[in-house]
Design a protein that fits this description.
By secondary structure, this protein is of the alpha/beta class. α2 crosses α4 and α3 packs across α6.
């Protein structure tokens, strides 16, 4: 039970009708001092004085946003204080200023929305450029990776320098990167050192250092064209997937850049969709889908594709639901520099 002085302090904080009106508004929305002035129709000095009393009494919290403070009802009020406020609010009902306060509050909130909506008609043509300047060109991939199940174990097979490992680690329980190159693994180790749920293993794609059915999802991103026998790698990928596990392969469409063989060790000059679908099916993967990825205007490489399939039968709930096509597309457009 609250001590008598505490109760008296709470009651003193709520003894002024203006503070009760302000608290009622802040219970519904986070508002600035200027917005409260508009709703309460009081000068800033008066509103600020009442907010200080409410803040000192533990009724409101403030946070800084730019040059303004935004106020809202405190989330950590003691239970007796919450009961006192509930009783007071019920007793007041819709008396006094409540209805007019609500009407002015709606106008304040509508003005917020109007300012936001006014921005886009004038900025639509520059929005993509502006967003990239503000947040970078890799914004979409982390957002869409949030659709992955947080309980998953995901393998990035041929992980290179670990860029995807880093992106995936924030959204799933465990990420395992496999690569046959010590130099690539060393770079990946430096990049992922602070990430406790990332594990690196050395091994070939045709003989993965992973147990049967150990992964919920597996990625082969710009790897398959380096392999002499892609079907063997796809068979290994299938082995390490759980029933219902999802495979995602990103690679190049057929092209005539023969110099890639000597310059970058490519064993294959891309893959036709029908070829990938057949290999995926032969490996024991079901419902193969191969989607062409439109090239970005500023890239120099051949067009890419994203191929996905599922290991059946018996996908179990909460394990490996299908990775959305949009995730496939997003990862594919960002996967050139591994």
């Amino acid at each position: 039970m609250a001590s008598a002085p505490a109760i008296f302090n709470w009651m003193s904080s709520l003894s002024d009708p203006t503070r009760v009106r302000a608290l009622r508004l802040l219970e519904r929305h986070e508002l600035s001092v200027a917005e409260l002035c508009d709703v309460l129709q009081l000068p800033q000095s008066t509103v600020s004085r009442h907010l200080k009393v409410l803040s000192d009494g533990g009724w409101v919290d403030a946070r800084r946003e730019g040059t303004s403070n935004l106020y809202t009802v405190a989330s950590d009020r003691p239970a007796p204080a919450r009961k006192l406020w509930t009783l007071l609010r019920e007793q007041l009902g819709e008396k006094g200023h409540s209805a007019s306060d609500d009407q002015r509050l709606q106008r304040v909130l509508a003005a917020r929305q109007t300012r936001s909506q006014a921005f886009f008609p004038s900025s639509a043509g520059q929005w993509d450029k502006l967003r990239e300047e503000l947040f970078g060109d890799r914004l979409d991939a982390p957002i869409l990776a949030g659709l992955l199940d947080e309980r998953w174990s995901v393998g990035d097979l041929g992980c290179g320098t670990g860029r995807l490992l880093e992106a995936l680690s924030h959204f799933v329980a465990r990420v395992i990167g496999v690569d046959d190159s010590p130099a690539m693994l060393s770079a990946a180790r430096r990049r992922t050192a602070p990430l406790p749920n990332v594990e690196l293993r050395r091994g070939s794609m045709e003989s993965l250092p992973l147990g049967d059915g150990s992964l919920d999802a597996a990625l082969l991103v710009l790897v398959l064209h380096h392999l002499a026998e892609p079907p063997r790698a796809l068979a290994e990928l299938t082995r390490v997937l759980k029933p219902g596990g999802r495979a995602l392969v990103l690679d190049m469409q057929p092209h005539d850049r023969a110099e890639y063989r000597a310059q970058m060790g490519h064993a294959w000059l891309g893959f036709a969709p029908s070829q990938l679908e057949r290999w995926l099916a032969d490996a024991g993967l079901q419902a193969p889908r191969v989607r062409s990825i439109p090239p970005e205007p500023n890239v120099k490489g051949p067009p890419l594709f994203a191929a996905s399939a599922i290991k059946g039968p018996g996908s179990r709930p909460g394990s490996s639901a299908e990775i959305p096509t949009k995730v496939e597309s997003c990862l594919s457009t960002k996967g050139r520099d591994r």
